[in-house]
Amino acid sequence: MDYYDLYCFLLALICMFIIMPVYFKIAEKFNIIDKPNQRSSHDYITIRGGGVVFWWAAILYAIAVHPSNFLLPFTIGITMISVVSFWDDISSLSNKVRIIVHFLSISLIFYGLGMFGNFPWWIVSIAYIFFVGVLNAYNFMDGINGITGLYSLVILVSILYTNEFILTADITKIDTDFIVYPALACIVFLFYNFRKKARCFAGDIGSMAISFWIVTLLLMLMLSTKSLMWILFLAVYGVDSICTILHRLYLKQNIFEAHRLHFYQILSNECKISHLKVSVLYAVVQILICLFVTFNFKYKMMNETLLFFIVLLPLVACYLLKFPLMKKTIKI
Predict the structure, then answer these.
(1) Which pLDDT belongs to residue 41?
(2) Of 2, 157, 229, 284, which sits with the fewest C-beta atoms within 10 Å of its C-beta?
(3) What is the mean pLDDT of residues 280-295?
């Protein structure tokens, strides 16, 4: 990292801090706001779509770095997913349209990273299902102040540490700028969102854009190291999302409708733990897991199967604690 990189980072940070107040004015003028309802975790009107800063970070990255074969597919992909998500923030959009765009955006990433032709069709098919699922799970988890920004920052910092200090010289590294720009966007977003009374929410555009970026980074890491263990960088969100979906299916609920059954929602809404404390809890647990996974990769302490069991089983056990908490506060 040289002085030019630091100059670009500082300039990008300033630009993002300028963009946010401009967006707030536009959102207020066009009534792009989030009104609380019985399913909400907040009780005040807040500007929606503050996560537009993540898309702006992608544009600033595209302007600042040297062109590459991957830059264009990524920029088009994150723009497509951001536009559709922002549209959904303003007025409800068909699930079919959103899913189609998600698949097209992921296709651009697969194309840019050379997955087509280099992997069997069934592996590519599983990758589609998994990554589109991650995008939507990330969106479901964006429900309280600070959780999306802080959790994403933890993952990005973990990827940056792995990239700079853990990967050996014989492994293809990720462009450092490609990790730093979304991390800077998280810092800017958290400045307005990590508050008792948030100035803005990420909206679908925020949760989808940052998850798209993170999914891309994790895929790059998996391809370069030929290891799936980096999926565990999403372990906390993953366990909460999958277990909640299973719970809602058991209750015969529509899993695409808003609800308050995520573990973080039980902690914040029913147990009355502050949003910020719950967000910090999720971030701290995830960063500990990221460190464990990273050092396992470096020192090869155990095989991947055992690693997955050791990480996931305690998380599932913790998730099950929500049921006695629910019995004390609400009727299932």
Answers:
(1) 53
(2) 2
(3) 98
3-state secondary structure the chain: CCHHHHHHHHHHHHHHHHHHHHHHHHHHHCCCEECCCCCCCCCCCEECCCCHHHHHHHHHHHHHCCCCCCHHHHHHHHHHHHHHHHHHHHCCCCHHHHHHHHHHHHHHHHHHCCCECCECHHHHHHHHHHHHHHHHHHHHHCCCCCHHHHHHHHHHHHHHHHHHHHCCCCCCCCCHHHHHHHHHHHHHHHHHHCCCCCCECCHHHHHHHHHHHHHHHHHHHHHHHCCCHHHHHHHHHHHHHHHHHHHHHHCCCCCCCCCCCCHHHHHHHHCCCCHHHHHHHHHHHHHHHHHHHHHHHHHCCCCHHHHHHHHHHHHHHHHCCHHHHHHHHCCC
Task: Inform me whether the pLDDT recorded for 128 exceeds 70.
Answer: yes
71-90 and 203-225 helices, crossing angle to 10°: 150
Tokens (6 digits) for 161: 């540490």
pLDDT in tens, 44-91: 678 999 999 999 999 999 998 877 789 999 999 999 999 999 999 888
Mean pLDDT of 262-286: 95
Bridge partners, 33 (sequence order):
47
Question: Is the pTM for the entire model greater than 0.90?
Answer: yes
Position 193 pLDDT exceeds 60: yes
Burial per residue of 251-288, b for 16 or more beta-carbon CB atoms within 10 angstroms, e otherwise:
eeeeeeeebebbbbbbbbbeeeeebbebbeebbebbbe
Using pLDDT thresholds of 50, 70 and 90, give the confidence band for residue 332: very low
